[in-house]
Amino acid sequence: MASVLKRTSLKIGMIPADGIGKEVLPAAQRVLEALGSAIPKPEFIPLLAGWGEFNKNGKALPEETIRVLKEECDSAMFGSVSSPSHKVAGYSSPIVALRKHLDLYANVRPVSSVPIPGQQQSFKCDMVIVRENTECLYIKQETISTNPDGSKIALATRQITSRASERIGKMAFEIALRRGQERLAAPKGKESWWKGEPKVTIVHKSNVLSVTDGLFRESVRSIKEGTDRYAGIKMEEQLVDSMVYRMFREPEIFDVAVAPNLYGDIISDGAAALVGSLGLVPSINAGDNFVMGEPVHGSAPDIEGKNIANPIASIRSAALVLSSLGYVEPAAKINAAVDAVLMEGTYLTPDLGGKSTTTEVTDAVLKRL
């Protein structure tokens, strides 16, 4: 991930795309603006993408959006996209395309529980899911043909490479290493509940997919085995079905989990249930030279325009972007403000059982800042 500390300004591409993305991204922008001199003056560049843009102009991801991101921006924020569940000629997901164009090979999703009044939480969860972002079934190479008897057969190509698997493995071990250092450096009274050594769990299904998942497993294992840098990090494995079961039964046993694209997508969305709502879970799409924040939730057309979407995931995603760029303290201030609002419980959106609006929750976070 990039580190750009010496700047006079911070140029952030803003891609609200569809649905509630147009409501939660402005909330994140307000919070970033409120940081004042703690970060370089942010400049927000509005950019187009999404299903709505496709229906207007025939392209879900305009070339100009790609150009501006590559040539003018330090980072970006993406809102949400509405993709049709059936095949539409000429359409492909702009978020998937952006990951490829910008080589954002890692999707990093922290899932951390915060005690919220009225929410039953019988466990502690503080894990990071690191999802490979560029291949697996998401390369979207599918064919359909007709058998002699008239029945249809659909085939999808699943691609796993050692290069992609090794670099996502390295990202996971680096995150585990950093989390371990942060725990040791935590001030008194703010120590982590995690008392053991940092741990990376490799998620796969190589007992069935011995070639593709076998390559992923061995490639990630080689990262730890090839250096002493990660000697203090424990390495474990979980079959993906077992991972899902154990994640819901005992999420406190997981620290950093690394998975191929499809598995990572499923378990990270499922993990949101552990903390109460998809509206709380942030993510970043990260490469070696660029980072793009993206709340985990979808476009939620059923609540679009009602000003009740939860802005927390978007606000936390902005904090993740700052942290990835090297602005760790301002990011920590944002997260502390969010935690305070959630723990107080006065301002909660309907997904958390409250009656507050997007605007009211954002205002509450700003007040805490």
TrEMBL record:
SUPFAM superfamilies found in the cross-reference section: Isocitrate/Isopropylmalate dehydrogenase-like (SSF53659)
Residues covered by the Isopropylmalate dehydrogenase-like domain: 11-365
SMART domains listed in its UniProt record: Iso_dh
GO biological process, one term: lysine biosynthetic process
Keyword Magnesium: yes
Entry's family note: Belongs to the isocitrate and isopropylmalate dehydrogenases family.
Keywords: Magnesium
GO molecular function: homoisocitrate dehydrogenase activity; isocitrate dehydrogenase (NAD+) activity; magnesium ion binding; NAD binding
A Pfam family reported for this protein in Swiss-Prot or TrEMBL: Iso_dh
Name the record gives this protein: Isopropylmalate dehydrogenase-like domain-containing protein
Record has Magnesium as a keyword: yes
An example Gene Ontology CC term for this record: mitochondrion
Organism: Kwoniella newhampshirensis
UniProt cross-references to InterPro entries, sorted A to Z: IsoCit/isopropylmalate_DH_CS, IsoPropMal-DH-like_dom
